[in-house]
Amino acid sequence: MNAPLTPRIDLIGLVVADMAASLAFYRRLGIELPAAADAEPHVEVTLPGGLRLAWDTVETVRSFDPGWSPATGSRMSLAFDCGAPEGVDAAYAELTGAGHTGHLKPWDAFWGQRYAAVYDPDGNTVDLFAAMPQPSAG
């Protein structure tokens, strides 16, 4: 008897109103995407570790799901490790300086991270975080 298959997450998909604007936002967060992708209806990239991130235009989704409509409000977020607390501040400044809307300004969270949040061009929350340095034992 074969063991049951266990699903594993392989891809996170985003539906976007403006492919070029969305890809420009995620390029600012270090995701490498070719410039030619800006004009495509579907774009995928494999991230370090193997997880894939994909973008589809609203028109693409409606081509196979005519009744689809965008969700309202934010029900999930993507979170980017900025490597160090100053990386959170720099990424937040870079994104808001480029005209993207900030949601939570950088702050030292009680759970031990420097944390901030911005909205991508489609209103999805994107979290920026980094571990805070631990006090040295003395």
Using the 3D structure, state the CATH architecture of the largest domain. Answer: Roll
Order of helices and strands: EHEEHEHEEE
Beta-strand segment tally: 7
Strands across the major sheet, in which order?
4-7-6-5
CATH class of the largest domain: Alpha Beta
Q: Which structural class fits the helix and strand makeup?
A: alpha/beta
Shape descriptor: globular
Radius of gyration: 18 Å
**Quaternary structure type:** single chain
Beta-strand percent range: 25-35%
> The CATH topology of the largest domain is what?
2,3-Dihydroxybiphenyl 1,2-Dioxygenase, domain 1
Unreliably modeled segments: none
Quote the distance from N terminus to C terminus: 58 Å
CATH superfamily of the largest domain: 2,3-Dihydroxybiphenyl 1,2-Dioxygenase, domain 1
Give the biggest beta sheet. Answer: 4 strands, mixed
**Which percent bin holds the helix content?**
10-25%
Number of helices: 3
- Give the number of domains: 2
Q: Quote the average pLDDT.
A: 92
What does this structure look like?
The chain is of the alpha/beta class. The protein is built from three helices and seven strands, in the order βαββαβαβββ. Strands 4-7-6-5 form a four-stranded mixed beta sheet, covered by helices on one side. A hairpin with a 4-residue loop joins strand 5 (102-108) and strand 6. The longest helix is centred in the middle third of the chain and has 13 residues, at 85-97. 17% of the residues are buried.
